[in-house]
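User: For my dataset I need records formatted as: sequence, then structure tokens, nothing else. Please produce one.
Assistant:
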Amino acid sequence: MKWPGLFIFQLAFAALLMFSTGQLLAQNSDQIFAASSITFERAWEAYTPQQVTITVSADGHAKYVSHSAAKPPDEADDYQTEFTVSTSCRNKLFSNTREANYFDGDFTFKKHAVAGTGKKTLAYADSARHFKTAYDYSENKAIMEITSIFQGISNTVEYGRKLQFKHRFDKLGLEDELKGMESAAESHNLAQLQLIAPTLESILEDASVLNIARQRAKRLLAKASSE
């Protein structure tokens, strides 16, 4: 009559062990993710900026560095800035990274020659893994979606820099710059427009700026708020 009780105890102990193991694995997984980051680099001599590096951490914090052969007069070193990407952007980046096996592999398109758009490198790092892959173009959907997001962020940041400069020194040139930015947005070549919302707001609120330029800034702000 003692065996049923012992059997029940063994079942309960096994269930408790599985639960504890599951919790430990979940905690380890959370810790690994919290320490993870994705880094995108692009080097392209024919483009400005010639070099770009963007790192996004699991909490959404991002660091951006770009190098241009021709720098604005008020910049002596490479341009650097830090910001936080949106939750949806962060989730897309890390979801696609998992789909691309954390960049463990060769994703370069090799079937035939393609027009060069710069050497690109994606790297993933956490407390347990560190993988890197280099490519110009890839057929892998996840790799290209990540690339599109990072290049869109770079385009947005660089437009923001040019707008700040022109707002200070060339207000008449703002309209052309904003027109080009609207065209880039319509072509889905920008990402995370909210990053330069303060710059767009300052242009919109400046009565000394041409009204057509201020209206373009207003439309871009509306697009930023809808992302």
